[in-house]
Amino acid sequence: MVSHNNKNTFPMHLVDLDEAAQIERKVAAGPALIPSSSRHLGEEANETVKASVSTVGVDVEKQILSALKKAPKEANVSHEGRINIVTQVDYVKEALCVKYNEDCEYIGVGYNDGKIRVYNSVTGKELFVLCDSDVDNKRSPVTSIKHKPVSKVYPVTNCFTGTCIKLTVDANGCVKCWSYLFNQCLYTIKEKRQTFGITYHPRVPKFVTYGDDCKVLFYDEETKTRERVLMASDDRNVHDGHMSRVFAACFHPRNNYELITGGWDNVVHFWDLRQPHAVRHVSGVHMCGEGLDINMKGTEILTCAFQTPDPLQIFDYGSGKRISCIEPDIHSCKLYCGRFATKDFIVTGGTDPNLLRVIDMHTITTMANVNNLPGAIYSLDLGPTKRRIEKPKEHSGRPKSDISLVPKVAIVSAKRLYQLEFY
């Protein structure tokens, strides 16, 4: 039996609903998302907006967007190290998640109005808006965007799959797969819970979804049917499943049956798809976003937690023992998301302060960062992999850990999409 909470768990300041329809958030259960510090445009932009709105016969929202593009960038956003902000795209709604498409030509951004907007990754121009009558009627925040991994099993399909939650008393969620070139919803899977995310299997046409009912649902992508439910057993003396909301999942890169999950119950669980319950776990990791990753060798786990101390930890996959706890050398930041960018670097994002950080795993130091962003970094994604150019030893002046090999990174912060490049 799926259990539901009468109080909504999604941050209401990000939701485009009438005040009467808003449901009080259960504050005690976990941290609220931090509202953006910049709610108003500058004087110049305001004047442009006023002039635009007064134009008869022109859509108001498009005029506001035009004014936003003309508005000067905030001077207090700073970056250090060999990093450049190459793209900044503004919109009028809060951005909650981001994902490159298969060939990194496009970027999909999910907003709190339920729509996914697709931008050109080079120019930042908006190309597609993924929306149908179902989205228009529900106005449900997009909580996650993924696409099928590119492989022989998964050819390029030009599709984004997103998860949404309906902010009403029944608090239903759904999974929607979009063919973005044709603005067509290929299928919708409705779930009787708040659905916070989706993760595709890297080798077979399967995926899992997770949400506020403590369960991990395993689907067959071809038939759109649910095959398994991963959950805790009824034995209260055994800790073999989640006891609170689940926000992250990651499949093992070299084992078809294994995955890990994390959430609000301060536990990372290890699952075997042949077993209904978790086979082991590690404790002390409070997750509020997609802050789980496994390196390509399948030997190490990265956890990015919304906590202090120990927000950033690395565990041995085989034993579950902690290898290292990466201490903040600049700011103590609570983390929402993070990834192994290369074998040498980790990229993390969070809030308090609103900071993106690139860490050298060999020296355990921050090699580049972007600080004072307008809001928390809820989501990030990595662009195309860069290939190392072999150089003769006598001409190679760069250290072993070469930050220029870190892929382009896309992040969302408040109402903005940023793209970052390393050199």
TrEMBL record:
> Which Pfam families does this entry report, sorted A to Z?
WD40
The residues the entry assigns to the signal sequence are none
Keyword terms, alphabetized: Repeat, WD repeat
**Superkingdom assignment:** Eukaryota
User: SMART domains attached here?
Assistant: WD40
Q: Where are the WD repeats?
A: 239-281
Which PANTHER family does this one have? CARBOHYDRATE BINDING DOMAIN CONTAINING PROTEIN, F-BOX AND WD-40 DOMAIN PROTEIN 7
Supply the name of the protein.
Answer: Uncharacterized protein
